[in-house]
């Protein structure tokens, strides 16, 4: 059966509902609604064929040319944006304005580029880390030779390799002889026995704790989305982070003073302590319950009749919301 995707989002204070179904690399259905007094269907597609695209009368003349150029394996909304339809570009920009960070591919290159672009941005990252009580006085970047370990690799192949590195967001600069990459140094204070600062010490970022490294890698994305608005997804949010740090990050997004552009943070976590966080509303907590057949159901804590004074973590661990792993304690080694 086709896989269905649907999302509701707001652009310029207007609520849209957009979705599609795909199967075997073809778009089987696609729809877009706009809510004014009520939902209005702007277009609906009922099969992979372009002829199945029905457009609301208001836009039928303008959008018909885009429908004629829509392939079976392409989304009509994306095709419109690619062909310079201002309306579609505005909606696509909403999707372009969020980031997805996964635990198995968390890179610090985004923060490296961010702090290298201006002193102001670097100060904002340092301030972010200091407010999280990471004892870093400053950060500096040095360009160092990048050992490609390529021996006598032909120049043409070396250039292709550098292009691949650039696609992976690794900043590479070339001097006359070899590629250069940024190396991040963290600056720490050194104190005497009377707690007087007497000097400073430099560390490579790789020498910092995993928690500090993760916080550094996340910092630019968090700062950018709070400043500009948008959406930030973080998988395995709590890995390597102290519970106080995860609460600190969440508090920034639920703060009127820090989040004036209505940025949204969506995280996946296995830390039940966050369920009783003073920074998270109950309607913001969603639970994924996976059954024995591998099917997952997603629901909110507020779908349950839970008293306001009840501790959610305790209820969750007792299995009152489902989703608690049913672990078989039988002997593993027979």
Give a concise summary.
The protein is of the alpha+beta class and 334 residues long. It is 29% helix and 28% strand.
Detailed description of the structure:
- With 334 residues, the protein is α+β, with helices and mostly antiparallel strands.
- The protein is built from nine helices and 14 strands.
- It has a five-stranded antiparallel sheet with strand order 1-2-3-4-5. Strands 7, 8, 9 and 10 form a four-stranded antiparallel sheet that branches.
- The mean pLDDT is 87.
Mean pLDDT: 87
Order of helices and strands: EEEEEHHHEHHEHEEEHEHEEEH
* Percent in strands: 25-35%
Distance from N terminus to C terminus (CA atoms, Å) equals: 40 Å
Spatial ordering of strands, largest sheet: 1-2-3-4-5
What is the tally of beta strands?
14
Contiguous helical run count: 9
DSSP helix fraction: 25-40%
The unreliable regions are: none
Main beta sheet: 5 strands, antiparallel
Shape: globular
Structural class estimated from helices and strands: alpha+beta
- Taking Cα atoms only, what radius of gyration do you get, to the nearest Å? 25 Å
């Amino acid at each position: 059966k086709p896989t269905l995707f649907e999302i509701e989002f707001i652009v310029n204070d207007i609520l849209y509902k957009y979705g599609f179904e795909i199967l075997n690399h073809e778009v089987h259905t696609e729809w877009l609604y706009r809510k004014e007094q009520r939902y209005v269907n702007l277009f609906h597609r009922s099969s992979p064929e372009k002829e199945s695209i029905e457009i609301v009368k208001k836009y039928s003349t303008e959008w018909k040319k885009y429908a004629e150029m829509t392939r079976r394996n392409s989304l009509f909304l994306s095709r419109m944006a690619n062909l310079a339809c201002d309306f579609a570009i505005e909606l696509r920009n909403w999707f372009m304005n969020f980031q997805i960070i996964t635990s198995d591919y968390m890179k610090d290159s985004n923060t490296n580029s961010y702090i290298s672009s201006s002193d102001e941005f670097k100060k904002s990252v340092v301030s972010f880390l200091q407010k999280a009580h990471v004892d870093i006085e400053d950060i500096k970047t040095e360009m160092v030779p990048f050992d490609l370990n390529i021996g006598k690799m032909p120049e043409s192949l070396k250039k292709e390799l550098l292009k691949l590195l650039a696609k992976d967001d690794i900043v590479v600069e070339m001097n006359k002889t070899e590629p250069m990459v940024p190396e991040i140094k963290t600056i720490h204070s050194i104190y005497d026995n009377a707690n007087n600062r007497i000097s400073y010490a430099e560390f490579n970022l790789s020498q910092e704790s995993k928690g500090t490294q993760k916080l550094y890698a996340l910092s630019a994305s968090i700062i950018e989305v709070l400043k500009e608005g948008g959406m930030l997804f973080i998988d395995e949010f709590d890995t390597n982070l102290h519970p106080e740090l995860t609460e600190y990050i969440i508090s920034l997004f639920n703060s009127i003073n820090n989040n004036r552009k209505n940025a949204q943070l969506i995280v996946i976590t296995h830390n039940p302590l966050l369920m009783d966080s003073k920074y998270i509303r109950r309607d913001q907590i969603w639970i994924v319950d996976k059954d024995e057949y591998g099917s997952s159901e997603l629901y909110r804590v507020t779908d349950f009749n839970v008293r306001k004074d009840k501790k959610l973590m305790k209820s969750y661990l007792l299995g009152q919301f489902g989703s608690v792993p049913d672990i078989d304690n039988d002997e593993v080694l027979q």
